[in-house]
Amino acid sequence: MICLLSIQLDFYFTAISRVYTRYGKCYTFNGNKTTSRKTKQGGMGNGLEIMLDIQQDEYLPIWRETKDETSLEAGIRVQIHSQDEPPYIHQLGFGVSPGFQTFVSCQEQRLTYLPQPWGNCRSTSKEKFPGYDTYSISACRLLCETNEVLRVCKCRMVHMPDLCKALEHKDHLTCCFVVVVFFQIIFVVNYETAQVYLSFIPFTLSLFFPRDNFLVLDIFFEALNYETIEQKKAYDVAGLLGKICMGLFIGASILTVLEILDYIYEVIKHRLQRLLRPQKEEKKNKQQTSTVATVGLEEMKAKVQHTLNCNK
């Protein structure tokens, strides 16, 4: 294997580490966060370039019993993921064929999801997650598969996380549901292939040996930036009230709203006047009756006094 990083030819064995997946032993480049390899610019020729000999003549035959677990393609399988996410290459990887040079451009995306109650999302990624340092969808799926295998077979596959002894952690044997983490980093991958020039490689077995065994993989960033996709609430309380008002008063101005309020005030005032009017009329009638009676009594007193004076 020959690696070319940032146009410096070297064997970067310190940046390559072994990792076990469903396909067996695989290799991860730049998987250590403490000693990360960085590039200074984007574009082709400024990333990782690898030439591999897949040794197709050493492939194991496909038996009837293992046809579901054995890969049918010749080449390698690649997955580009963040350093916090374990590889889930059997479902999220893409294939690279021998005899071609494959150019892979990737762009980083940072996704931020809303937590509950807006969705079934994990509110934080810093909570302890068995077998992994950071929660991710791939880690959750691997943990769920591990729990099910432990429950049925009382063992685990080599690529599954170590959960210590199952009898000491009975809570890990229950099935879990995959939820989305509130913050996630993914890479959007675009790739194309070209016939690789292999005439410089000496071949002694056959004319097709270089074409069937050698491939070149060129991975680079399209640009040294990232795209942020953030979920936001469609409506808050103020926005919802404003949206409802716009639905009731389409094209209405402030003056129209004030006129409607004035109309409501006049209607309420009229209703109150109708309710209070019978009481006022009854009180007025009582006052008039009392006045008439008082006037009549005074006249009678005056007449009686006048009559007495005449008799004298």
TrEMBL record:
A cellular component annotation (GO) from this entry: plasma membrane
Annotated keywords: Cell membrane, Disulfide bond, Glycoprotein, Ion channel, Ion transport, Membrane, Sodium, Sodium channel, Sodium transport, Transmembrane, Transmembrane helix, Transport
Database matches in PANTHER family: ACID-SENSING ION CHANNEL 4 (PTHR11690:SF13), AMILORIDE-SENSITIVE SODIUM CHANNEL-RELATED (PTHR11690)
Pfam families referenced in this protein's UniProt entry, alphabetically: ASC
Topology in membrane: Multi-pass membrane protein
Subcellular compartments: Cell membrane
Species in which this protein is naturally found: Acanthochromis polyacanthus (spiny chromis)
Protein name per its UniProtKB record: Acid-sensing (proton-gated) ion channel family member 4b
Similarity comment: Belongs to the amiloride-sensitive sodium channel (TC 1.A.6) family. ASIC4 subfamily.
Assembly, per entry: Homotrimer. Heterotrimer; with other ASIC proteins producing functional channels.
Lineage, top ranks: Eukaryota, Metazoa, Chordata, Craniata, Vertebrata
Entry keyword Ion transport: yes
GO molecular-function term, one example from the UniProt record: ligand-gated sodium channel activity
InterPro entries cross-referenced by the UniProt entry: ENaC (IPR001873), ENaC_CS (IPR020903)
